[in-house]
What we know:
The complex is a heterodimer.
Chain A: H1 20-28, H2 32-52, H3 57-74, H4 84-102, H5 111-118, H6 123-142, H7 146-158, H8 166-173, H9 177-198
Helix pairs in contact in A: 1-2, 2-3, 2-4, 2-6, 3-4, 4-6, 5-6, 6-9, 7-8, 7-9
Chain B: H1 11-28, H2 32-45, H3 50-58, E1 68-75, E2 91-97, E3 100-108, E4 114-122, E5 127-133, E6 138-143, E7 148-155, E8 157-164, E9 171-173, E10 176-178
Parallel strand pairs in B: 1-9
Antiparallel strand pairs in B: 1-2, 2-3, 3-4, 4-7, 5-6, 5-8, 8-9, 8-10
Amino acid sequence: MPWGYDITVTDESWPDSDPVPGWVKAAAAGDQQAWDLLVDRFGGLVWAICREHRLSDSDAADTVQLTWLRLLENLGRIRDPQRLAGWLATTCRRECLAVLRQSKKTVPTTADSLDLVMGGSGAADQDVLATEQRAILWQAFTRLSDWCQQILRALILDAEEGPPSYRLVAAQLQTPVGGLGPTRARCLSQLRKLLDGSGI
Amino acid sequence: MSPDDPALGGPAADDQEQASADAARALGELDDQELISRLAELLGDAEAPSWSAELAKASYGLRAVDAELASLSSDSGLTAGSGMRAAAAPRLAVFETAGLSVEVEIESTARSGLWRLVGQLTPAGPARIGIRRHDGAVSWTDADDRGRFSADQLPGGPLSLRCERPGQPAAATEWIWIG
């Protein structure tokens, strides 16, 4: 910082402390609502990991449910609830690989499955990194303010066919079009700050 | 969960932390366009059907709060050599908790889509066995004096066994996916 002090942004986009460890603790103690919040927060990530492993829709659905059951039976012994996204992604990935092996429809021949079995590095490590990146990106994104998440989602969805139309997105979100660019920049900057913080 | 699961701490946990640090650094090195592109892929894949969240939330009722967790200590379905030939052989899974081992053989029946399960408790002895499915359904059977039990006509999907031995704390096996 040029003037030697931190500028603390006090608006609603500044990340609060992570609520997830509190939810894990409460869910372990019998709180259904805390469990529901965890499902709402991370459901999308678990699906994304299944799709990353190219599971069929029905296999993905089963694997997603099994991943949640896996969390359920381990609620009291999660060592690092601040990395729950990574735990869920890793657990889901394991179940995906198990499904791919056990399914009679598929004989696993990918380097990944063989590596996992043989304990080797290479392709398996690549996949581990890709899965972990998804978990970390998801965790950071879901800690942005609701407004930042809305803005980024809208701009991303609208950009599927080419550069996003700020006019369209501004109309959708009922916000001045002139503010979208700066907001997008600020939200991306927040996302990067969260990513920087998540590596420790 | 296997004993070397990172969530339980130990050396594998450090690997997990290193993986997190590596992943965060790799993401931090992307420019804005690349980062947005990654986010776009992730959000696209993350679209989930609404019933999935409802089912996951409803699973909370399946917590076996009063039972000890019998972890999956070995599973022939996960070892090298599985494939077309091995797929025809029964799957052997072993669950363990302090003072109890539950061995289970799972094989498909002539009726496609359904499964048969044959189990053995160690130490051998009688018990009530609850076969729990993830929709909340539980069907009960008994392990005989030699600790043997079986169940037929099981549809595929997540399954957990609840084991109630006289004078012993209840145990529940880690959820596995049969089928």
